[in-house]
């Protein structure tokens, strides 16, 4: 009998937009070029590039979430076909299963998952701190029990960097504490100090210039603006490769999200990438870009796709509704993804109500294409100095959502005009 593996040859997935597959970081010299280049700005909105070991990422960018090394229902060739230059993985989940050392033996996450593009890995802090009954925080790190089998583990700032080095993440995130929504000032202040100390320990464990993996710090501070400012001041004077805004989209109202987003983003360094973690809807992303943020991730496009909610150039479509049972039109006439080129709304509804697995793939493929198109169109609008009209168009697609945050948006527009006058 011929072994099942006989004649097996791993197919190399073409890299999107000219990205090329690179080796494990142990064999690579440290990066010498600047990580971020600002190409153009339209008021606070920025178009730029982030350089990684696995390609240059045009910004603003949306990163599909592949928590355990796979974007749910989507294969790497699907991601390459829709032009995703970077995806996100999660340190906590990959550490527990299959294990970061196993992944390292198989060429890092790029080789293991056959993904030629860039990868950002979250530190796992958010997942660990969501296990409130299963973890203990101390100066050394956070002790937690696995959600899989109850086994005990310890994450330290140093070990989390080591795990991400084994995964060969192009962008590594420091360990931080994400405080729950509603935490009081005293708790948030204490947590912020710990997050800062942990970030500096992570940088000491992986000094600037050590290798090709980039290291981003995460600013925190809960919903206290003075603590947000303090976090930025304490972290941004150190030589991290980029800075993230953590601790938003954790249960606060839409107008509070926008208030803090517009407050915090302009305070981050202009010469480094700015990353808003875990946000959000297409309109959230459009406003994040308007505030000056470069990078976004969220499970929303794939999670909602599996629930039958699809995003289109005409607004949201709930594909399970009976009105689509005999609709022969494409899901989105303005979209050129495989789903929209090939299938009707009627067929997509049939797949969904029949609980066919193909529905997950086709719906996810479209939603991810839509989110990537949003940031591509936003980038083009910035380059052409017409971002305000692009944002107005996005608000027209999601009027109910726009109304929830409009009070703070109007105030920001006044500040933007004053900023533009000062720049001139």
How much helix is in the residues? 40-55%
Structural class: alpha/beta
Tell me the distance between the termini: 76 Å
For this entry, what is the oligomeric state of its chains?
A: single chain
- Tertiary shape: globular
Give the uncertain stretches in residue-range form.
Answer: 1-9, 18-29, 419-424
Mean pLDDT: 90
How many strands, which pairing sense, and closed or not: the largest β-sheet?
8 strands, parallel
Largest sheet strand order? 4-14-13-12-11-10-6-5
Q: What is the number of beta strands?
A: 16
**Tally of contiguous helical segments:** 16
Beta content: 15-25%
What is the radius of gyration? 21 Å
Structural overview:
- The structure is a single chain.
- The protein is α/β, with parallel strands linked by helices and 424 residues long.
- Helices cover 42% and strands 17% of the residues.
- It contains 16 helices and 16 strands.
- Strands 4-14-13-12-11-10-6-5 form an eight-stranded parallel sheet. A three-stranded antiparallel sheet has the order 1-2-3.
- Strand 11 (214-219), helix 8 and strand 12 form a beta-alpha-beta unit.
- Helix 6 (157-167) packs across helix 7 (185-205) and helix 10 runs parallel beside helix 14 (357-383).
- The longest helix has 27 residues, at 357-383.
- The protein starts with 35 loop residues before the first strand and ends with a helix.
